[in-house]
Specification:
heterodimer, A: about 500 residues, mainly alpha, two-stranded antiparallel sheet, 20 helices, globular, B: about 100 residues, about 5% strand
Chain lengths: ~500, ~100
């Protein structure tokens, strides 16, 4: 039973009733949003046993089955994304209870819509709905980027609107090419039909290129990454946490889904370019993070660097299956510690009133727990043992060592660069003797941060949880099983 | 086992939180402790503070990576150039090499 679909519906209905309720009782909006996101999380968790039992669960939306009707299909990979979206969504909504004080109606409605879009991408079994939900996510984040309505926010939102629209246009064009070539939009049916298309047909690589480029804009892959720091640094930190942790994860999920399930690319030619782009993303993110003065921009570039790791692992997965597992596990870990770091930065802003690291310092004296939580997130980011980042980065090192040892050297060097800017950021913000006067930290803001810190430590101390999860996810990425389940073949 | 470890971690965090509230309120370092003494002199915090953005300036210059900052200056037309260039390179690569797949 696909209870997770009701998560999507709960959040969609909440997004629409929030503006109505705000006409009478605006002070209850935050609590309604928190309740809805908690319900969405519970429903998502209830779906897990079904996915683990059957491998993939499907739900036709009306009486027409695949490939003609709209089909929802959730396998292990989709389920992992659904859990990530609902869990981080709930924690961010809880965090926002005291963090967001103005324009709550707009904020919570858009936050719920963003989650709807993200969940829809994880649920969908056809390309057109992938595009529709991508647009829902994008449009809600364009507006959230302009939340503060100052010059920087509007500029950032406009940049994202223009570049993001370019990305979704490329995705649409890729889908159009695919439809023209095969006559279907259902992912499983596409996979069957694409196998019959000759390799010499130029439309096939053109549509793949368009899709990867368009989704690469969302994933902030080099060279489509330039918008991200400008946008994330002007958003509220809570929305930034959601956006940075999940939007890019969904972009990578969509790329992997298109490449593995729809096109079932097995050629080394394609994976070489993914490795090259991933390596460039990784290095660029780390180098630019070292030069940042604004804490949110530093975290944004750090997130870009981690996306590079995931792409390198994905590319190596074309040669060594361990690479796919490493990519999936690192995708999960990056979402967790990036959300932790962004929410911690939000608390810093709430207490000190600035993200400028030149003006911050000595925060650990006023809030040691926040300092510990930020340090846990940063150590996980660097890949220090006992934290979740180490477990997935170790898998990446092993996968690259078996195929391209030079990549192992590169990933280790970038980890050293992450150490350089990570510890520098921690020492600047939390150590030292600055004169910034902090306010009180509220429990509703500290609790989500602590929960994420616990998750980072849990998956670091017990990495076998992550190994088993990624093994299950990658095992379910088998194309034949997906096609059989969706199309109802033998 | 997982639940036990999870529970221990959660308990540790809550214990730290409660401990930190006492720490935050009662302990205040004396002025003497806050002083910085280096190279035979008392230094002010401002003298010891290295600007965040230029902390790794030497490393960046040595590796000749300053150009990267210029390419991320906030200019939208430059960003769009990157996006178009990336799109063109990616599709050309796939168009040329796809026949070898």
């Amino acid at each position: 039973m696909m209870y997770s679909f009701f998560s999507l519906m709960t959040l969609l209905i909440t997004a629409f009733i929030i503006p109505l309720i705000s006409l009478k009782k605006e002070r209850f909006i935050s609590h309604i949003a928190i309740g809805a996101s908690l319900l969405a999380l519970v429903l998502a968790v209830m779906t897990v046993p079904f996915v683990m039992d059957q491998g993939i669960i499907t739900q036709p939306m009306e009486e027409w089955g695949a490939p003609y009707g709209i089909m929802l299909a959730v396998d292990g990979f989709g389920m992992m994304l659904i859990l990530m979206v609902t869990a981080i969504g709930f924690l961010v909504t809880l965090f926002s209870l005291r963090f967001i004080k103005k324009k709550r109606t707009k904020y919570y409605a858009l936050l719920c819509l963003m989650q709807v879009g993200l969940l829809g991408i994880a649920h969908t079994g056809d390309m057109f709905n992938l595009f529709v939900f991508l647009e829902i996510t994008s449009i809600s984040s364009y507006i959230l980027a302009s939340y503060y309505r100052n010059a920087a926010a509007i500029e950032g939102a406009l940049k994202y609107l223009i570049i993001g629209s370019l990305g979704t246009s490329m995705v649409l064009l890729g889908i159009v090419f695919l439809y023209g070539l095969t006559g279907t939009l259902n992912m499983a049916d596409l996979a069957v039909n694409i196998a019959d298309v000759a390799n010499t047909n130029p439309v096939l690589p053109l549509s793949l290129g368009m899709l990867v480029a368009g989704l690469g804009v969302k994933a902030a892959m080099f060279p489509f990454h330039t918008w991200k720091p400008d946008v994330v640094s002007v958003m509220p930190a809570s929305a930034g946490a959601m956006f940075s942790a999940l939007s890019t994860s969904i972009g990578i999920y969509a790329i992997m889904r298109v490449v593995i399930t729809v096109f079932s690319v097995s050629s080394a030619i394609f994976y070489y370019i993914i490795i090259a782009l991933g390596a460039a993303t990784m290095v660029l993110g780390a180098v630019l993070a070292m030069q940042q003065r604004n804490l949110l921009r530093l975290l944004a570039y750090s997130a870009i660097s981690q996306v590079g790791y995931i792409l390198v692992a994905f590319g190596v997965g074309g040669f060594n299956p361990l690479g796919f597992q490493a990519a999936v596990f690192h995708l999960f870990n990056v979402a967790m510690f990036e959300a932790l770091l962004f929410l911690s930065a939000g608390i810093v802003m709430h207490k000190a009133g600035t993200y400028d690291m030149e003006k911050l310092g000595g925060m650990a004296r006023f809030s040691p727990v926040l300092a510990y939580a930020f340090l846990i997130g940063m150590l996980a980011n660097i890949g220090i043992p006992l934290f979740n980042g180490f477990a997935s980065k170790w898998m990446i090192y092993m996968a690259t060592l078996a195929t391209f040892p030079i990549l192992t050297v590169l990933t280790v060097v970038v980890s050293i660069m992450t150490l350089m800017y990570g510890l520098r950021a921690y020492s600047t913000v939390f150590l030292g003797n600055k004169t910034v006067k902090p306010g009180r930290i509220l429990r509703s803001m500290l609790l989500p941060v602590l929960i994420l810190a616990v998750i980072c430590v849990l998956f670091g101390v017990l990495p076998q949880l992550g190994f088993q999860m990624s093994e299950f996810v990658v095992g379910g990425l088998d194309n034949a099983h997906y096609i059989a389940a969706v199309l109802g073949l033998g | 086992m997982v639940v036990v470890v999870f529970g221990i971690l959660v308990a540790l965090i809550f214990m730290l939180n409660k401990h930190s509230m006492k720490y935050g309120r009662k302990r205040r370092p004396s002025n003497a402790k806050k002083k910085i003494y280096a190279c035979g002199e008392d230094m002010s915090p401002i003298q010891m503070d290295v600007p965040q953005g230029s902390f790794y300036r030497v490393f960046i210059r040595y590796m000749r990576l300053e150009k990267l900052s210029e390419w991320h200056s906030g200019d939208l037309s430059r960003y769009l150039t990157w996006v178009f260039a990336g799109m063109v390179v990616l599709m050309l690569y796939l168009l040329v090499f796809w026949r070898f797949v």
